[in-house]
Amino acid sequence: MIPTRTPALGALAASMLLASQAATAAITDNEIRIGYLADMTGAYRDPIGPLGEDAIRMAIEDMGGKVAGAKVVLFSADDRNSPDVGSSVVREWIDERNVDMVTGLVASSVTLATVKLLEEENRLGLVNGAVSSSITNENCSPNHVHWVYDTWAMSNGTASAITREGNTDWYLLSADYSFGHALERDVARVVEESGGNVVGSIRHPFPSSDFSSYMLQAIESAATDEAQAVRAQMAATPIDDIFASGGYIREDGRMVHDMYLVEVKSPQEAADEDDIFRLVRTIPAAEAFRPLDQSDCRLITPSDA
Asked: What is the pTM (predicted TM-score) of this model?
């Protein structure tokens, strides 16, 4: 459920390179200020915490540390997987440091609290860790974009495909917080719609033991760091990078892209230690993510659906 360093770096670098021909940018403080909020010490530390920050710093260095002549400044903090801690950090960043954007946003509970604050203060959010489908459904806003997959896509694509392969009986083991609850709900729905059966479920305590370059490129293209203008520029920009090909940002803030069902190869089939997966099926973007006509997002109009 957590993206790795490689796609984070690819998306960050690509967005910083997107449009270098912008005119004089109306950028406040002559700096682009990014806040990286993530779990730096807990359950999500290894897959995304400090590594996500490293990816952003590497992409900033690749751009020479500036976009449209403005210096790129990065702040980071540990949200401790706490909505209260995360909200307090973001409030301080906005009030005291005038950040333009917050990214990272790994735990769904922290993300949902943060995006509300970002909308209130008209700052941009780029969600590249949390995967609850509510982030661009009932909790959508004009100020954030959900970059990676979500629980609707995971269940509609993966669970549907696996069930149709003949694996009809499911027992669900879910993390006992907002992400796990959303995934459990979405998987159960898809399994039953596909003719399968959820034979039981249990929730375990949690924890049991970069992409922001697109924003930087959009700032350069839009010639401003104002959140709505940057988001509009991002939505107008096709996405083709190491993470996604043919991706685009919808009206609800959902970045849609193809999903893939893969099968782990046996040791006898693998050519080397990096030969791990076999592609079973490509799930087109239009099928992988929640259709707009099924969305509860307040930004969707009948013409969009």
From this structure: 0.80
